[in-house]
Amino acid sequence: MVLEIKNLTKKYNRHKTGLEDYSITLENGILGLLGPNGAGKSTLMKIISTISKPTQGTLFLDGVDIVKSPGHIRKILGYLPQDFGVYPNLNAYEFLSYIAAMKGVGGKGLNQRIELLLEGVNLMADAKRPIGTYSGGMKQRIGIAQALLNDPKVLIFDEPTVGLDPEERVRFRQLISDLADNCIIILSSHIVSDIETIADEVAVMQGGKLITKGSQPDIIKYAENKVFEVLIAPASLPAFKSKYRVIDTARQIDQVRVRYISDLNAIAPSSAPVKVGLEDAYLFLTQNNP
Ligand SMILES: Nc1ncnc2c1ncn2[C@@H]1O[C@H](COP(=O)(O)OP(=O)(O)OP(=O)(O)O)[C@@H](O)[C@H]1O
């Protein structure tokens, strides 16, 4: 499948723009959306899910205009919104059966599919108690399961790992990695490491705009030779922070190890370059595009 998004703009009102002239082309595989609060990640996901209409721009899925024909994507869409709500009195079976009915998914295999999904998100043991008694992470997992009910070909997860413990994060990754060959999967996260372990490609967004999209090695290249480490006295840290863009600090016995972004010709004395990762590149890119 190919999803072609061109010159997408979403204006909520005269003062609020969610997306501005946003163009991106997606094919099967996992795209990680990274961006600070207000970058436009949810706005983009809502427009692709046809929950929200763009002010301008086009979205074509395999050549079909999904703004004009939303039904074309809805029947193959799985969507976990950021503010996913549940019916607290229903148990997991009942809830998934209800969502299946809403999506027009039925047939003989439905119960088996529901069980498979409940196993996939590790909720089998709790499937018969009301969802209202679930923890936040368990509710999130039922949200993940409902998105997968209709065997989707376009899967959109807005902050899917919120509330999941490390073990459940791994389980989530496994669940969606298996689908990525035949599916366009888009997921947003504030946790760079979640995207890092799973995404084939990464799109970095800020202020409603796409800063860049590419494979992880391509994105990481932006920060090469731009990130350094130095040991300084704790008392010098405030002055250091006012001069450099500090990414991270780690307290040593009587010093602080500071990781920071700088041009090579402006680094602090005794600094050493570091091997950069996706988080460094993300911070570098969003810092340079205020
Ligand atoms: N319904 C709305 N009405 C007015 N402005 C909105 C609305 N929804 C989003 N916005 C604004 O659009 C911009 C993009 O918001 P969006 O929720 O898409 O960002 P985000 O990247 O998903 O952020 P977060 O990570 O905080 O969820 C923000 O400035 C936000 O305040």
From TrEMBL:
The keyword Transmembrane does not apply. Keywords: ATP-binding, Nucleotide-binding, Transport. The keyword Disulfide bond does not apply. Gene3D superfamilies: P-loop containing nucleotide triphosphate hydrolases. GO terms for molecular function: ATP binding; ATP hydrolysis activity. It comes from Pedobacter cryoconitis. Residues 3-232 form the ABC transporter domain. Belongs to the ABC transporter superfamily. This is ABC transporter ATP-binding protein. Pfam families: ABC_tran. PANTHER family: ABC TRANSPORTER, ATP-BINDING PROTEIN (PTHR43335). InterPro entries: AAA+_ATPase, ABC_transporter-like_ATP-bd, ABC_transporter-like_CS, P-loop_NTPase. Transmembrane segments: none annotated.
